[in-house]
Amino acid sequence: MKIDSSLSVAGLSFERGERRILDAVSVQFESGAVTAVLGPNGAGKSTLLGCMAGLLRPSLGSVDLDGKPLIALPADERARRIAFLPQIPEVSWPVEVATLVALGRIPFRRLASDADNEAAVRRAMQVTHTAQWSQRTVTTLSGGERARVLLARVIAGESDWILADEPFAGLDPAHQFEAADLLRSLAAQGHGVVLTIHDLALAARIADRVVILHRGRIVADGEPEAALTPATLREVYGIEAQWLSVRERGAPLIAIHGRHAG
Amino acid sequence: MPRFAYASWLCVAVLAASTAARADEAPHPAPSRIVSLNQCLDAILVELVPAQRIAAVSHYARDPLVSAIADRAAHLPITYETAEEIVALRPDLVLASRHSAIATRSALRRVGIQYELFEVPFSVPESVAQIRRIAELVGNRAAGEALVAKIEGAIEAARLPTGAPRLTAAVYGTGGLTAGSNTVTDELMRAVGFDNLAARYGIELHMPIPLELIVAQPPDLLLVGDIPAAAGMQPARVVQHRALRKLPSMRRTFPARFMYCSGPTIVEDLAELVAARDSLHAIAQARAAR
Amino acid sequence: MSTPRWLMPTLLILVLVLTAASIAIGRIVLDWNVWLEQDAISRTILLELRLPRALLGVVIGAALGLAGAAMQGYLRNPLADPGTLGVSSMAALGAVLSIFFGVAGLHPSVLPLSGVAGAMIGMLALFLLAGRTASTLTLVLSGVILSAIAIAGIALVLSLSPSPWAAGEIVRWMLGALADRSLDDLALSTPLIVVGAILILNSRRALDALTLGETGARSLGIDLGRTQLQLASGVGLVVGASVAVSGIIGFVGLVVPHLLRPLVGARPAALLIPSAIGGAVLVLAGDVVVRLLPGGSELQLGVVMSLIGAPFFFALLYSMRRQVT
To answer: Tens digits of per-residue pLDDT, B66-91?
Structure first.
């Protein structure tokens, strides 16, 4: 199934009080790829993602889905097309895992039958390997397990786009790779995946495309090796880094040596 | 600092005045600056002394809904029953009730103003004793006896004629309150010839009576509490309950002052009861004649 | 987890049984063939006194249970309840003010509508003070503040009241009771409660979506501003109309959802209707108990609910104390 969709922002600016968090950002994302949005703290990554999900209203510029303005879409339809995984894994009530995953079907209202909803929830739990916890209370799960369940909620929505804000934060390496593999397979199936991430090395490994934000502007955009040059990293992050090729393993890794001396 | 000094000066002045007054009390001159703090006591007071000797009555005295002397009180000075106002009047006699605020009473004691405390009377003899006590205090025993005679005479005149059948009555006031046994209202009702429904169910004093009891055995006369114009809440609305509207009882309005005050209001109360009784008897006779 | 199949039928049967008990129990013993005999008195007692009391028990109990479940779902806190968060007190203030300003006598509907206005203002003030992401501590404190404001307002009205006996009457009304209410009370309050319940039930999806937090809910297409208004109106109607008729009957909205959560699951929307029915059961049961207790005068229903609910609230707060701040 090929999802041919594009999500783009044009001339996007976002101001909060005196601060300009995003400054005339323009970028287009295509479905079928994993894009990582990187940048130091305060660069505007979460704000960009929030605008793209329709959760924040930009001060200037627009967000377009398949060429049409996002704000023109009714909220339910937008929620069906674009799923958002918030940074903070809030679960307010001790519900069962199956119940939580089923929340991803809320935007469907009466458009989907109960059978459709149950099937989508089942598929999502299978893909995330959370089916065995179906009747367990979410609050009894560990952090990594809960992250998988929340991802299953997003997947249950079967939306074209999945925007995830720091989905790997607080996860141990094994769980990080597990989640990353999942996101990659979703992209392979044709979904558009855009995520913000702190971990440069992980981003370099899993992303098809990297967009680097610095002080509200895009300073790099391309494949990881092309965008994450040592020079860019020195300027944006103030660190010394280098690409390494670990012969037995294949894909090159990025190694961070330390802070930039200057 | 100056305010404190003024207050202590005021207290000293009042103490001196009251001490001086007590020093003069040897030949017991009749009090000429009388303050009453309760609308029921107000009604008794105005019968016993001329207006010049009344320094103030309670502010409720001017409210026709709760006071029997509303028109007369319009020309009398009033207080809002605060210690400050009472002190400023330099009273030589203060009549207070159990309903007067405890803090106000303590304040009066602290400042050295004596007050006479009166309870709600629970029987006609108690009410009569109150009138006599007030008459003694104001130095007008004769007026007191006249009022007592008027009341006792009214009661005698109101008594059920021998051979006339007894009737039943009940009071249903706001909040569902009734006058049970051991109340003046109960005694008056019985004297006029009404058996009190509430007393039959063992209700004493002023307690709520479940509407069911009244509906189950509708009295011949239902004395319904009056509702102030702005009422809307359940305690007031309950006297307009649909269940009451369907009762065959004769309905008469029963102002709250009849329930809680005695003294002179007894005469008014009796007149209403007698009128109702005579109407009921007339209706019964007319029905029997047919 | 879905609601166990036996729960709803059991609750409904309990409502029917307790309604029958409420109609049957009272100071006067009614003959059971009261319909057959042309006994006007028994019919009057049955239709004008027992029936409204029982039906109001159902309607008001359901209203309070529903309001509690809705508030807990929206504020994402199991301690939320119209009583504890001051909404019932604000409803009482609205009712008392309508008396004080003399408008209550204009039309019988003015009083319940004033209660509704008071409750709605209370809800909006609560949202303003506590917001949606408030901790338990902030919520409870907001409730304390609202209750304090309401009680101050009522005390002011009491002190300015023209009649020396009005204070006692108003205080007794506020303590909460269903005794001697009439079909008029039922007719006035039920439509308001039904409309409020519909508004609350319309927010089902939003309440569920809030399980994922504010951002999560909005990402699912929920308009939180509209939800807030819907709930303020819905809870305002439901609580305001109830308080106007019965005074303050507290803790129903706190106890019932808490008892049902282990059975029904913690999903907020799933708790709404069971809490309504459970609320009816609790209030009916309490109203039957006050009539069965020995003693001359009936205890006020609100007093009995507080005697049960306050220790319950204490125990709940204690068990949650680590999550309070």
So the answer is: 788 889 899 999 998 888 889 889 99
The whole-angstrom distance between A165's CA and the closest CA on chain C is 11
Asked if A37 contacts A197 with a C-beta cutoff of 8 angstroms, the reply is yes
Among the partner-chain residues B66, B99, B247, the one whose CB lies closest to the CB of C163 is B66
Tell me what ipTM this predicted complex has.
0.91
SS3 label, residue A101: helix
DSSP B121: P
Q: Which residues of B touch C168 (CB under 8 A)?
A: 175
Confidence (pLDDT) at B233:
66
Task: Give the integer Cα–Cα distance in Å for C237 and B69.
Answer: 44
The DSSP symbol for B119 reads P
Q: For C75, name the nearest residue in chain A, comparing CA atoms only.
A: A92
C45 → closest Cβ in B39, B216, B228: B216
Q: What is the pLDDT of residue B9?
A: 56
Checking if the pLDDT of C116 tops 60, the result is: yes
pLDDT of residue B229: 47
Query: In chain A, what residues touch C132 (CB-CB under 8 Å)?
Result: none
User: DSSP code of B252?
Assistant: E
In the three-class reduction of DSSP (H, G, I as helix; E, B as strand; rest coil), residue A44 is classed as coil
Confidence (pTM): 0.84
Q: Which two tokens stand for residue A202?
A: 């992980």
User: For residues B76 and B51, is the Cβ–Cβ distance under 8 A?
Assistant: yes
Nearest CA in chain C to B40: C164
What single letter denotes the amino acid at residue B266? I
